[in-house]
């Protein structure tokens, strides 16, 4: 009997990461849901998915800004199921940085989580992905292609991830596929980035399809890339046409 494929998703406890986890789980994958601070939400996700299919999901807590934690996350995956078929680099930080007052800590935070961590996690996972002709999906951003005013460091980090996606598709072929998904506005932001009604209306006017995206829109693109064996080095833009109106 063929083993179920295994997907490791970073930042899987909440919002987009949780939707990706549920979508790949429904596709038949076993899930490793990485989290950092959202352990309660990760445990709830594990319980939900395991109630659907027993012993199909585990959570792994790690602060990946410490690169020494990359190996334990991969090892936890291998220890549980003996293989890794897809790595989804979803964990991200997003906030504005005003040029002229950007701190070293802001730079390091945005670049580390959005660019450096995906690279080193891929490098750590590479031998296992190679064994099963696995694949990688990086969650990029449409603002990697056309920058968003007020977010120069974030945009630079995501632009780096976009080019890294293409570069590694070349480096890791033919045994590992590397692709990306570039979301536009997907779910309204929370907390410090929360928008008021007028700001939401302004955002919607810039989207030809007239609505923001749902997590499912991104998760379905990830699912497509996970199972499409002749696609590599490609970044799918999921933005309702927003990039066309800039």
TrEMBL record:
<protein>
    <submittedName>
        <fullName>Pteridine reductase</fullName>
        <ecNumber>1.5.1.33</ecNumber>
    </submittedName>
</protein>
<dbReference type="InterPro" id="IPR002347">
    <property type="entry name" value="SDR_fam"/>
</dbReference>
<comment type="similarity">
    <text>Belongs to the short-chain dehydrogenases/reductases (SDR) family.</text>
</comment>
<dbReference type="InterPro" id="IPR036291">
    <property type="entry name" value="NAD(P)-bd_dom_sf"/>
</dbReference>
<dbReference type="Pfam" id="PF13561">
    <property type="entry name" value="adh_short_C2"/>
</dbReference>
<keyword id="KW-0560">Oxidoreductase</keyword>
<dbReference type="InterPro" id="IPR020904">
    <property type="entry name" value="Sc_DH/Rdtase_CS"/>
</dbReference>
<dbReference type="GO" id="GO:0047040">
    <property type="term" value="F:pteridine reductase activity"/>
</dbReference>
């Amino acid at each position: 009997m063929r083993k179920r494929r295994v997907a490791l998703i970073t930042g899987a406890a909440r919002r987009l990461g949780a939707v990706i986890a549920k979508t790949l789980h429904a596709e038949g994958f076993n899930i490793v849901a990485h989290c950092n601070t959202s352990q309660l939400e990760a445990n709830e996700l594990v319980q939900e998915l395991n109630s659907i299919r027993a012993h199909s999901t585990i959570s792994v807590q790690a602060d990946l800004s410490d690169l020494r934690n990359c190996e334990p996350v991969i090892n936890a995956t291998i220890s549980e199921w003996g293989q890794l078929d897809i790595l989804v680099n979803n964990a991200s930080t997003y906030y504005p940085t005003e040029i002229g007052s950007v701190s070293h800590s802001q730079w390091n935070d945005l670049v580390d989580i959005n660019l450096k961590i995906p690279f080193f996690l891929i490098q750590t996972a590479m031998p296992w992905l190679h064994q099963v002709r696995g694949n990688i999906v990086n969650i990029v951003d449409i603002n990697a292609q056309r920058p968003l005013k007020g977010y120069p460091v974030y945009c630079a980090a995501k632009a780096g991830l976009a080019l890294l996606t293409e570069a590694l598709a070349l480096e890791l072929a033919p045994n590992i596929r590397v692709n990306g998904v570039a979301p536009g506005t997907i779910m309204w932001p929370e907390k410090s980035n929360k928008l008021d009604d007028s700001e939401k209306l302004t955002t919607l006017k810039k989207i030809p399809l007239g609505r923001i995206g749902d997590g499912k829109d991104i998760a379905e693109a990830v699912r497509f890339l996970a199972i499409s064996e002749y696609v590599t080095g490609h970044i799918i833009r999921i933005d309702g046409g927003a990039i066309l109106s800039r």
